[in-house]
Every structure is written in structure tokens, then in C-alpha cells.
Design brief:
Blueprint (H helix, E strand, L loop, with lengths): L7 H10 L15 H8 L2 H14 L5 H25 L6 H18 L11 H15 L6
Helix pairs in contact: 3-4, 4-5, 5-6
């Protein structure tokens, strides 16, 4: 499955150019809500982040943990569009932005470096994650 979101405009461009579809079924269809939801959430990067975060939590120095968590968060934010562009061949800038936001929301919900701040409350992430996830898939990235 191609990771780039397919919109009505994409189908129109394909039909106008006369390009043959490359899907196994022989036709390309517009992505529905759940297709967009899957394509917007960079699950591979969230999983990688969770794994590395677990390793960082083995450190004993609180200051060191704080620094490593922020560095990892920034690195994975940078890796998100790079991975989507180079590995998954996603070319839509809007989809990259949505995926970065999705990653940030997931990290916020997990706690990540935000949990080390005095203002953070896990309830915020528990509310933000489902609300963001349900709303973001309504958007069709152009």
C-alpha cells in the first residue's frame, strides 16, 4: 500500500494524464477516513521512539534523562518527514506536517520529555490523543 494520501484531486490528475494505475486491483481509489488515519500516523517512528525512550529511562541521572529525552524528541521529529519522504515516497508537504503533528501528539500523550515539566499532566495527553486522532483524518492532504 502506498503511504501517500490519495485525494479526489489526485484521481483527477491521474485521469487527465492517462497514467495507468499501479495498484494490484487495477484501480486507484480515493482514500477514505480510515486510510487517511493510517497514513497520517507515523506508527513506525512512534514505535521506534517508544523503544529508544525505554532505553533512556535506564539512565539514573535526572538531568541526563531530561537532555536525552528532548534530544530524542527533536531527532524523531526530524526523522518523521525524512522517513516518509525517502522510504515511503510521500511527496505531499501537508501530509508531512500532519504526520509530524501526529508524532508530537503521540509523544505528548506518552509523556516523553513533557512529563519532566512541572505543568504536564497525563490527563492532557489522554484527552488530546483521541480528539486529535479523530479530527485529523477528516483532512485530505493536498
Amino acid at each position: 500500500m502506498n503511504r501517500e494520501v490519495v485525494t479526489a484531486k489526485d484521481l483527477q490528475k491521474i485521469n487527465q494524464s492517462g497514467t495507468e494505475s499501479k495498484s494490484p486491483s487495477g484501480t486507484i481509489t480515493r482514500d477514505g477516513y480510515f486510510d487517511r488515519l493510517f497514513k497520517y500516523i507515523p506508527a513506525e517512528l512512534v514505535a521506534g521512539y517508544i523503544f529508544v525512550l525505554g532505553v533512556v529511562k535506564q539512565l539514573t541521572d535526572t538531568g541526563e534523562i531530561r537532555i536525552f529525552q528532548w534530544i530524542l524528541f527533536i531527532i524523531f521529529c526530524i526523522l518523521t518527514p525524512l522517513y516518509l519522504w525517502r522510504v515511503q515516497k510521500v511527496m505531499k508537504v501537508q501530509q508531512h506536517i500532519i504526520s509530524i503533528l501526529s508524532f508530537v501528539v503521540w509523544v505528548f500523550a506518552l509523556g516523553g520529555p513533557f512529563a519532566l515539566s512541572g505543568w504536564y499532566n497525563p490527563v492532557y495527553g489522554a484527552i488530546l490523543l483521541p480528539v486529535f486522532t479523530l479530527i485529523v483524518a477528516i483532512i485530505e492532504a493536498e
